[in-house]
Design a protein that fits this description.
alpha+beta, 3-stranded antiparallel β-sheet, 5 helices
């Protein structure tokens, strides 16, 4: 029985796994999207999203916490300066995993993980709509609008 065992060890010891996730997180912040296996992408998502949430509040304490996990000064600077400014109003879900198929050499499931707000293809046709995960009482979609009178007197 595996009660409470949520960490995917990825076939690595703890120090190697933490270093690998730190390097992948820095690459994701630098390049905005990376290709990796599905298992590593899911592990990276759980690693990077709390750090992006911390980056929304730019304090010395949060910078030190994020630096202790990422271990690269340039990546921390870019995260707090550029990435946090772009995702400031988003309540979560900062990354997207897109499955790419299988790798030729070993048939591993491959995926692309990217920062959501940096993909211009998906965001081009959508309006800038602010959504929250709150109650639907304030939603005006249930109200009925009266019909518009037309000019057919001609």
């Amino acid at each position: 029985m595996r009660h409470g065992k949520k960490v995917n060890h990825l076939g690595r010891k703890t120090a190697h796994r933490k270093s690998m996730l730190a390097n992948m997180g820095c690459s994701l912040i630098e390049h905005k999207r990376i290709n990796t296996t599905v298992a590593k992408a899911k592990a990276l998502k759980g690693f990077i999203e709390p750090l992006i949430t911390k980056a929304k509040d730019d304090t010395t304490h949060n910078r030190r916490i994020v630096f202790s996990r990422l271990r690269q000064k340039e990546a921390v600077t870019e995260l707090f300066r550029d990435v946090a400014a772009k995702i400031g109003d988003r309540p979560g879900g900062y990354t997207r995993i897109i499955k790419l198929g299988n790798r030729l050499g070993d048939n591993a499931d491959m995926a692309m993980i990217e920062l959501v707000d940096y993909n211009e293809i998906y965001n081009a046709d959508k309006k800038a709509k602010k959504t929250t995960r709150r109650s639907r009482r304030g939603n005006s979609s249930n109200t009925v609008t009266p019909p518009v009178a037309s000019n057919e007197e001609e």
